[in-house]
Design brief:
mainly alpha, Cytochrome C, Cytochrome Bc1 Complex, Chain D, domain 2, two-stranded antiparallel sheet, Cyt_c-like_dom, heme binding, two-stranded antiparallel ribbon, 14 helices, 38% helix, Cyt_c-like_dom_sf, iron
Length: 351
């Protein structure tokens, strides 16, 4: 345990410089850079759910977990599609290299081109509701956002404490502190952690985000991607990409169409989807595809119509020029149709 902790904490310093060197993409969809993957890397491991304490703070953490894995309980209130947070953040937000929740918590507050301002962690989660969930963001300070922040904080802090061999419960924070995120000099930390790591090191924990993969040798192709989809994805997500549901409850998510993420979600970008797919799909069989196959199938999935970008003010071309200048099909003609012109509604009600 101790040697793994030393490797983890040491790697944080090495990777910080690498991450800061990553160039941002040229449009307002640019995500925070992921941390380069090291095959021999030790990753932060949050404590098991059974370690969540009793009491008011533990109740917030448990509620955050429940909302994260079953976000559909917020359908029609804040969610407008058939997805759950855990569909894109694997293992209930715990899995390294699957955009783990613990990595995101320590990366905010941070400037985002998408909003052209510094976002707190709470504001970042609000964006997920608006775009990935095709819904309506809960108000700042709402019980849902506090709970999701508490869960993210508990995952990250418990993992850091164990990596540094610090026993005891995760320190409780006020609601006002929880929703800010941890990338700040005044964030309350145990002295041992504060002395062992810097803010930037904690913001670039190994395993954060989806590891980038090289651009393919051939330009990505929806046509080739269809063959990859049929061979590797169709069994779970269906020939029509609409996932699988039992009694109206989706066990496997829809990938396009009215029940999936909208044109403003980060996953609509071919590169983001390719990074996620290569590392994490097919489910329970990750890293089965080549780089080329991952890019091609991501292009196939994201060259279908889906819910409208909420930022569209009625002009697809204008929205494309402002928000969609790289690695996506919004405003692009596919099979004789310009994607975005026949998009599905934002935040449709199920009932």
């Amino acid at each position: 345990m101790k040697s793994s902790a030393i490797l983890l904490l040491a790697a944080m310093g090495v990777l910080t410089a690498q991450v800061q060197a990553v160039n941002e993409l040229p449009d307002k969809q640019a995500p925070l850079p992921s941390v380069p993957k090291n095959p021999d890397q030790s990753y932060l491991t949050p404590r098991p759910l059974s370690a969540i304490p009793e009491g008011a703070f533990g109740d917030k953490v448990r509620l955050g977990y429940q909302l994260f894995v079953n976000t559909q309980q917020l359908r029609d209130k804040y969610v407008g599609n058939e997805l759950n947070c855990a569909n894109c953040h694997m293992d209930a937000g715990r899995k390294a290299n699957a955009s783990p929740l613990w990595g995101a918590y320590f990366a905010y507050p941070a400037y985002r081109k998408k909003d052209d301002k510094v976002n707190t962690f709470e504001e970042r989660v609000q964006g997920c509701f608006n775009y990935s969930m095709n819904g309506k963001a809960p108000a700042a300070g709402s019980p849902e956002l506090i709970a999701l922040s508490a869960y993210a904080y508990w995952l990250g802090m418990s993992g850091l404490m164990d990596a540094a061999n610090l026993d005891g419960p995760v320190p409780e924070l006020s609601d006002a502190e929880l929703v800010k995120g941890a990338k700040r000099e005044d964030f309350p930390l145990p002295d041992t952690l504060a002395k062992a790591t810097t803010v930037d090191q904690r913001a670039n924990l190994p395993g954060r985000g989806y590891p980038e993969i090289p651009k393919p040798e051939l330009a990505f192709s929806p046509e080739r991607g269809k063959a990859v989809y049929t061979a590797h994805c169709q069994a779970c997500h269906g020939a029509d990409g609409q996932g699988q549901a039992i009694a109206g409850v989706y066990s496997l998510p829809p990938l396009w169409g009215p029940k999936s993420y909208n044109w403003g979600a980060g996953m609509h970008r071919v590169n983001t989807a390719a990074f996620f797919i290569y590392e994490n799909m097919p489910f329970a069989k990750s890293i089965q595809l080549t780089n080329q196959q991952a890019w091609d199938v991501a292009a196939y999935i994201n060259s279908h119509e889906r819910p409208q970008d909420p930022r569209n003010k009625g002009d697809v071309k204008q929205a494309q020029e402002k928000y969609h200048n790289d690695n996506d099909y919004y405003g692009v003609e596919v099979d004789g149709k310009v994607l975005g012109t026949a998009s599905y509604p934002v935040f449709p009600k199920k009932s």
